[in-house]
Write a structure and sequence with these properties.
The complex is a heterodimer of chains A (236) and B (245).
Chain A: H1 2-12, H2 18-50, H3 71-75, E1 79-81, E2 87-89, H4 95-98, H5 113-120, H6 129-137, H7 164-173, H8 194-197, H9 215-224
Antiparallel strand pairs in A: 1-2
Helix pairs in contact in A: 5-6
Chain B: E1 12-17, H1 26-34, H2 42-46, E2 55-63, E3 66-74, E4 93-95, E5 101-103, H3 113-117, E6 124-125, E7 152-153, H4 159-171, H5 184-188, E8 194-198, H6 205-210, E9 215-216, E10 228-231, H7 236-240
Parallel strand pairs in B: 1-10
Antiparallel strand pairs in B: 1-8, 2-3, 4-5, 6-7, 9-10
The chains are: A mainly alpha (236), B alpha+beta (245).
Chain lengths: 236, 245
């Protein structure tokens, strides 16, 4: 087929110089390459601009945790399927029951594994794989307790200092500013979490970052609510 | 536009009583530890690229054995008319409404104009990526950014401690009380030579100290109007007109 094309070109453009005959297919292939590069650059720029990585490009932010902890069963209020396939009524626990330091400190905090075993020493079947891991980690089963390497989902850059306490306090004082909705119980401080974290109570095995949490979002909210926009408030 | 001192909620400042300074360098060490300042090894000093947000300058006076050592701790003076601020092309350094000369690390592009403009030589450029020995990894302060290579840094009056103090005060619905916020250097000073506080509070310690007869500021002819006030050394020998017999 290629030889037929070359024959056609030779017939058609008998007067065309040889260098042009070579240049035409080179330019054709080259332009395809340029389009491909530009497309990749454009996809990168759009991804960076939106701040929400496009999942098909392999940037899915649903991070697998070492133990498939279910926020739905703990925080949700519906009926959910647990890791053994049983139907379980959601507990509707308050976010601050486990993330205890969120109302007083900078970090929301991940509970120590002993916290889990307050209940799960007794509650839950023995054949459950995640619960076995939890009990081993807490030293209830076996004699080699290892800490759980929870993976962080919401990560701020190193030059940002985000403190939960004043944000939770402000939203508690101004309930009309709460924009999120949660399928869990909305008691006390837990009612405000969904404004930035989305409906965590409906996230099954993995927690996803739903808001871009870029500086523009922070500054817009700070302007709207008459909060300080001094650089040194967050960057120091 | 920066507010005048009197119109601010807080106007942070420091008073350094040079008479009390023994040159022990505890402030220098405390500052390095609090603010994640990289270690200054010998080669950094040899190249004159050591980073010390606060340094104790030493001057010898007289000839041995009739000799005196003079010490003066020098940190960013947080000038009201700071020569470093207008020269920054990206507004990475500016004066905020609490009287602080703020350095915004993520804005800085590393032109080093500010360091050239600073008459007190208290701005330091990160010529290298900061490296700590393995044993120091968990000693870094999580409240302070680790500055990467290519940006400028300087004394921030421990702005992370100020923010925490102001936040706690706002939570309790009150103003920050005098002595509630301490910078790392004032906390470490064993002779209480460094005092940090709010100049707008007429009853604060710094407000009372800065009106002392001994007060002066560094390089006053440049009219930088610093927020760090020094109290001069009391020279008993000279006032008595005789030297040690």
């Amino acid at each position: 087929m290629l030889s037929a094309l070359l024959e056609f070109l030779r017939e058609k453009h008998r007067t065309t110089p040889v260098w042009l005959k070579v240049l035409i297919p080179v330019l054709g292939v080259g332009s395809l390459g340029v389009v491909a590069v530009l497309g990749a650059v454009l996809a990168f720029v759009i991804t960076a601009w939106l701040g929400q990585p496009i999942p098909v490009l392999g940037f899915d932010q649903s991070i697998e945790q070492p133990i498939p902890f279910s926020h739905t069963i703990h925080a949700g209020t519906g009926v959910y399927e647990n890791s053994l396939g049983d139907q379980v009524q959601g507990l509707g626990m308050d976010c601050t029951f486990c993330h205890r330091t969120v109302t007083t400190q900078a970090n929301a905090g991940i509970p120590p594994v002993q916290f889990c075993t307050y209940c799960h020493q007794v509650i839950g079947k023995d054949e459950s794989e995640p619960l076995t891991q939890i009990r081993m980690s807490a030293g209830i089963i076996g004699d080699d307790p290892q800490p759980i390497n929870w993976r962080r989902v919401h990560r701020m850059p190193d030059h940002v200092r985000f403190v939960h306490e004043p944000h939770v306090r402000y939203l508690l004082d101004h309930p009309d500013k709460i924009t999120g909705t949660s399928t869990g119980t909305n008691i006390g401080a837990a009612s405000v979490c969904s404004t930035c974290h989305g409906d965590v109570a409906s996230m099954k095995r993995t927690v996803t970052q739903v808001e871009p949490l870029k500086m523009g979002q922070c500054v817009n909210c700070h302007r709207d609510n008459n909060a300080p926009t001094d650089c040194a408030s967050c960057h120091h | 536009m920066t507010l005048q001192r009197e119109k601010r909620d807080y106007s942070w400042g420091m008073v350094v009583d040079v008479d009390k300074c023994t040159g022990c360098q505890a402030c220098v060490l405390a500052c390095q530890a609090e603010n994640n300042v990289p270690l200054n090894l010998q080669d950094r000093f040899e190249r004159a690229r050591a980073m010390q947000w606060i340094r104790v300058e030493r001057y010898w006076e007289g000839e041995f054995p009739d000799i005196k050592a003079r010490f003066i701790p020098i940190m960013c003076q947080h000038c009201e008319n700071a020569p470093c601020e207008p020269v920054c092309p990206v507004f990475a350094t500016y004066h905020n409404n609490e009287g602080l000369n703020v350095q915004v690390y993520n804005r800085c592009v590393g032109t080093r104009y500010c360091a050239n403009g600073c008459p007190y030589i208290v701005r330091f450029f990160n010529y290298w990526e900061p490296v700590w020995p393995e044993a120091f990894r968990n000693h870094l302060n999580p409240d302070v950014t680790v500055r990467s290579r290519g940006i400028m840094e300087k004394c921030s009056f421990c702005v992370q401690r100020i923010r925490r103090g102001v936040r706690n005060a706002e939570r309790d619905g009150r103003k920050v009380q005098d002595g509630e916020i301490q910078t790392a250097c004032t906390q470490a000073c064993p002779t209480d030579a460094l005092v940090f506080g709010n100049f707008n509070d007429k009853d604060s310690r710094v407000s009372k100290m800065k009106d002392d007869d001994r007060h002066y500021t560094l390089l006053p002819h440049l009219a930088t109007d610093p927020n760090v006030v020094y109290l001069a050394q009391i020279d008993t020998d000279r006032s008595a007109g005789s030297s040690h017999g």
